[in-house]
Amino acid sequence: xxxxxxxxxxxxxxxxxxxxxxxxxxxxxxxxxxxxxxxxxxxxxxxxxxxxxxxxxxxxxxxxxxxxxxxxxxxxxxxxxxxxxxxxxxxxxxxxxxxxxxxxxxxxxxxxxxxxxxxxxxxxxxxxxxxxxxxxxxxxxxxxxxxxxxxxxxxxxxxxxxxxxxxxxxxxxxxxxxxxxxxxxxxxxxxxxxxxxxxxxxxxxxxxxxxxxxxxxxxxxxxxxxxxxxxxxxxxxxxxxxxxxxxxxxxxxxxxxxxxxxxxxxxxxxxxxxxxxxxxxxxxxxxxxxxxxxxxxxxxxxxxxxxxxxxxxxxxxxxxxxxxxxxxxxxxxxxxxxxxxxxxxxxxxxxxxxxxxxxxxxxxxxxxxxxxxxxxxxxxxxxxxxxxxxxxxxxxxxxxxxxxxxxxxxxx
Length: 412
Description:
Radius of gyration: 21 Å
Number of helices: 15
Oligomer: single chain
């Protein structure tokens, strides 16, 4: 099976220029269930269906929460978040519950503003063989977000909205997650559009930091509710995945959206273990700049930056440029290589710079890549040569002497 991170969670978009910068800092998505169910269906695993009545059926049976009940729940959850983080809310946060339809309308209200950036992402993913040219990434993302997102906090407007009507354990845990975003926004300012235009991966690194912190507190809150509530929350999350047809969504979109959640929580754990809350505060001021630093927190703690390489020249119409990064390298190689081989080759990544461009109607990417040292560069080059041999139009151009090499790949 291709090498994909084992997920949960995700965010509605403020898509930036490269696939791993797709994510804004707005929401948590019910993708644990969705990805598990999609993969289970593809592998014939029938043990994934939750027993008995679904969480969504049980939630539907509950009376909608009153304003007084919502305010009381938010006060209780806010106190828990403050205790766990050691921070206090500068001002109270208004939480709104919204039912199906209304929630999606509010979530996707500004989606069309991001279409141009998603089209850039589409070029990159097509050129690297991660999506078929016939796939409409914009519509796939609209479907994925509309179906899987269960709550969002918008740092531009301070709007916090959770999908649901009753205060189920899953809704409560989602409120906890989003309240962490609101608290962090009050203390660290989560609205950082300047990251979107940087050629490195700081946009992803910041998302991983923010989502990892929120997931850590969300998990602690759910555990505080007890085993029965945790089981009910899992059943509700699974039900969200079963209610939606994600068959037209490429797996790579699940992986990219879920990555900040999957990788962010252990990253935050490592930062806290190294230097406590003081180190976490410092991370908000100086977030990771590469996916390598998130995948291997020791690299972040040592502030190991990417190796600078020249931006390649391209023979066609440039669309954009930026860093591919270790995580996307792993995903690309994992489409053809054995899982462990792809991971080992990607771990030797030292730096890169890529240009997305068009050859007529075809999507292309030209990337200059280098490993951490001569041996790692050679291992990475050989891995991409094996990958390129299985592609319709891809090649590797070595520069010799163990230096950077160039990958050129175009969609069929």
